[in-house]
Amino acid sequence: MATIPRSGPRGLPPRGEHHPAPASEKPARVSRAVVDCAVYINGHRQPGDISYRDALAQVRESGEGFVWVGLHSPDDSQMTDVGTTFGLHELVVEDAVHAHQRPKLEVYDDTQFLVLRTVQYVEHESMAMASEVVETGEIMVFAGPDFVITVRHGEHTELSGMRRNLESRPERLALGPTAVLHAVADKVVDSYLAVTDRMDVDVAAIEESVFSRQNRWLDIDPVYLLRREVLELRRAVTPLSTPLQTLTASGNPLVPKEVRRHLRDVADHLTTVIERVLEYDELLNSMLQAGAAKVGIQQTTDMRKISAWVAIAAVPTMVAGIYGMNFDHMPELHQPWGYPLVLGVLVATCVALFVVFRRSHWL
């Protein structure tokens, strides 16, 4: 956790003041990234559509409630305008625009910045036909004293349903912006659980394919694909444990006690997910080793068969080579029974070799 100071008593515009909108078309451009914006007082959403500038001014003039702004994939100029309005540090503004961040928690004065990686299970008929199992995205949450900003990257894990659910429980929203932060973390971790439940089926299918006696030939590519997807899920899930530990710490003054209790439940669910992912990783590693051994056995069996057929073919090749040397004085060369005799000896020898190799399980 990093704490970076900034100028001003809180690094935010003073109550009753907000930055005037420039005369350019910037507000119109920013509005395209805004999914929803509302003011919440005592957990209740205030009626009417309002811009985030006016919402922040209203909250700071009245000294009640907080603003919740939802953004989807803002660009540099859009996020810069939001950051200027809410007094966000330029470093977190940059992080909010450029996704692919590791899960982390940073504190800038009294504003908490939480990054979460989102995951979605990609439907597929079978692992042999799949090209991707897990699709990742990103959600960032800025939680200040009187505002919360959610920035979403990716087409999955939308937050409108979560917002409606929270609005139906005003007692939760009355806890303030950190209640939204908890709700987002809870939704993301629940999606982790859902993805791991679906991946159980894929892991079981791969395990059956690797260790089945009916499958003579093993396609090792699906095992490598699933292992790659598990590693991607692991990179999204495992780093989140440290931010949750910081948020649930008893000495954290920015998170109310009641919210910390709910966050501890989220941390417990995350622990379950991490244990599952580590179990998948170990299991797939074992399956890769078993698959490699099975492929080696298959190759050894193939080499035995090839060697056996080469040995059988060597007998007629050798005899044909001898009789192709065109010497005048050769045994049985001018005998009427010489040709059928040689053919009979060749057939008998090849059959005898075939029986020997068959009994030795080379054929």
Task: Give a short overview.
The chain has 363 residues and is of the alpha+beta class. The protein has helices spanning 26-31, 52-62, 76-86, 90-97, 160-167, 170-173, 177-211, 221-237, 241-248, 257-323, 338-359; strands at 34-41, 44-45, 66-72, 104-108, 111-121, 134-143, 147-153.
Defining key terms:
11 helices, Beta Polymerase, domain 2, alpha+beta, about 375 residues, rod-shaped, magnesium, Methane Monooxygenase Hydroxylase, Chain G, domain 1, transmembrane, cobalt ion transmembrane transporter activity, 2 domains, 7-stranded mixed beta sheet, disordered N terminus, CorA_cytoplasmic_dom
Q: Superfamily at the CATH H level of the largest domain?
A: CorA soluble domain-like
Percent of residues in β-strands: 5-15%
Structural class: alpha+beta
What is the helix content? 40-55%
How would you name the oligomeric state of the polypeptide chains in this document? single chain
Membrane topology: Multi-pass membrane protein
Catalytic activity: Mg(2+)(in) = Mg(2+)(out)
Region (Disordered): 1-29
Subcellular location: Cell membrane
